[in-house]
Amino acid sequence: MATAENITVSFTKMSGAGNDFIMITNMHSRLELDWPTFAVKYCTARTGIGADGVILLEPDEDTDFAFRIFNADGSEAEMCGNGARCAAALALDQAIAGESMHFRTLAGIIEARCSGTDTAIRMTDPSRVENRVTLDMDGVREIVHFINTGVPHAIVFTDRIEEAAVEAVGRAIRRHRHFAPEGTNVDFVQVLGPNHIQVRTYERGVEAETLACGTGAVASAICCFEGGKISSTPVQVTMKGGELKIDFTREKGSYRDVWLMGPVVTVFTGEVILNP
């Protein structure tokens, strides 16, 4: 592995509905760094760049590129919906791919389409749907719903989302033994209309509430539809960082053709000079 001495890393800071990422193009595989350590250092606000994660675009033999994401705590995630949308927008901007593209993630191959400031990705099909999971939370029973949309998500329904204890309850559910060993993301969901929901997410790996979560928006929309809480698509998902839209098809008890849609913006570009 290369040493960090005198290495300059160019990056693009991007945001997808409030999820922000340090985007690094490594299509020639010239950078061989300790990416978990890099993510912990530079995702930190004030002393670093500040972000929810670090995303790499690397070469892939069968698709336009390979996507890797390291969370702010250094862990590598299988997938990130808003991060994948940012990667697609960056790939188009840097002529790595055209307006329609495919790229590889640890969760599978993702299809993306870019149009103006909006970027849409076709997610891998959801799996492991569990309705009404009862968790013992130090003697208090909590009912959650579970679905994997590339990464695991536990859903908690509420009628007062602004008052939800996202940090405290989210942290407890995230590490509950039912979801061991990998843990889970936790989404707090309030239904606002027949195809409109509001979501707040405690993200695994960030270990805090984030302004948005693409895979969480998808998980929340599908769980609401599965439980009859919403009745039509596309589903509008309101998050602290902005609005997302989710579309999907339900067929023979399963969900497919799942699309996550929303805006992507470039915040700034820069360079990091790594010291030994």
Could you characterize the architecture of this molecule?
The chain is of the alpha+beta class. Helices cover 16% and strands 48% of the residues. The protein has 2 domains: 7-124 and 264-274, Diaminopimelate Epimerase, Chain A, domain 1; 127-258, Diaminopimelate Epimerase, Chain A, domain 1 (Roll). Helix 1 (35-42) links the parallel strand 2 (19-25) and strand 3. It is globular, with a radius of gyration of 18 Å.
Mean pLDDT: 94
How many domains comprise the coordinates? 2
Main beta sheet: 18 strands, mixed
Q: Please state the structural category.
A: alpha+beta
Taken from the alpha-carbon principal axes, the silhouette is globular
Order of helices and strands: EEHEEEHEEEEEEHEEEHEEEE
Please write out the topology.
Elements: E1 7-16, E2 19-25, H1 35-42, E3 53-58, E4 65-71, E5 76-77, H2 81-93, E6 100-105, E7 108-115, E8 118-122, E9 127-137, E10 140-148, E11 152-157, H3 166-174, E12 185-193, E13 196-203, E14 208-210, H4 214-226, E15 235-239, E16 242-251, E17 254-263, E18 265-274
In short:
The protein is of the alpha+beta class and 276 residues long.
Key structural traits:
276 residues, alpha+beta, Diaminopimelate Epimerase, Chain A, domain 1, 2 domains, 18 strands, globular
